[in-house]
Write a structure and sequence with these properties.
This protein is mainly α. The protein has one domain (3-108, 132-243). It contains 10 helices and no strands. 42% of the residues are buried.
Length: 266
């Protein structure tokens, strides 16, 4: 396949899946495997994530700036910022301790990724039906202990195929957070989490980063930005109306198709 077309396809995949509970990492790794695509030092895969981060930042910039400006006078604003940072803390600790194992072993195991996609899909289908009644409807007013617990759930997404947003949303819903609020808190939590993860990846890979394919990187970055921007603006309304069943079935279908392809030797 033409490299520009491959870059556009992977950028589209990143943008569409990054903020849905379907595992963007799992999709990218499986797509790269089946397309025979691999960039030196994972430069392409790391940089296009910045496009998705930038899209989310543009959507929530006014909200975050408002919280920061009000934090000096308002307890609620301070508490909202602390809740996100507290939820972010477990990922920092686990990420620093297990980074090399995650990248060197788990990311190189397509069968594991496919299985986790399927299992995660089944979990989403179940939780969408049996989640306890919602007692928290404001993503910015979660109790700090529950914010920390959601952050612990996020650590499960260190295993590719689990989904960072999926783990945080499921964890939040099990703790009585309304499904839209769970998704919104997941989005806010993704800003420090993804930003730190990309920065750390770039630092760890600084000696092998390869920007020679700058055109393909630019195409993937731009495609990820545009599609992520559209998805973020759409997904909260969809979740409010329809829940998470669609994403559960999506994961099961993709994971099953990947297992079939791997079994056939692709």
């Amino acid at each position: 396949m033409d490299t520009t077309l491959t870059a556009a396809l992977l950028g589209l995949l990143e943008g569409v899946t990054e903020f849905l509970p379907v595992s963007s990492t799992g999709h990218l790794l499986l797509a790269g495997h089946f397309l025979g695509f691999e960039s030196k030092g994972k430069t392409f895969e790391v940089v296009i994530q910045l496009g998705a981060i930038l899209a989310l930042t543009s959507v929530y910039a006014a909200l975050i700036l408002g919280l920061v400006l009000r934090a000096r006078q308002e307890d609620a604003a301070r508490r909202a910022l602390v809740s996100v940072l507290l939820a972010f803390l477990p990922a920092v600790i686990v990420g620093l301790l297990a980074h090399d194992f995650i990248k060197g072993v788990l990311f190189e195991t397509p069968v594991l990724i496919a299985v986790m996609l399927i299992l995660g899909g089944l979990v989403l289908l179940v939780i969408d039906r049996i989640a306890p009644p919602a007692v928290h409807r404001d993503a910015l007013a979660l109790p700090l202990r529950k914010a920390l617990a959601i952050g612990l759930c996020q650590c499960l997404a260190m295993v590719p195929g689990v989904s960072r947003s999926g783990a945080t949303i499921v964890g939040a819903m099990l703790m009585g957070v309304e499904k839209r609020a769970a998704a919104e808190f997941s989005f806010l939590l993704s800003l420090p989490t993804m930003g730190a993860a990309v920065a750390y990846d770039l630092f760890k890979s600084r000696d092998v980063l390869d920007f020679a394919a700058i055109w393909e990187i630019a195409v993937g970055f731009g495609m990820a930005f545009v599609t992520a921007l559209l998805v973020v603006r759409w997904v909260l309304g969809f979740i409010s109306r329809h829940g998470y069943a669609l994403f559960g079935w999506w994961r099961i279908i993709v994971g099953s198709a990947a297992l079939v392809g791997l079994a056939l030797g692709f």
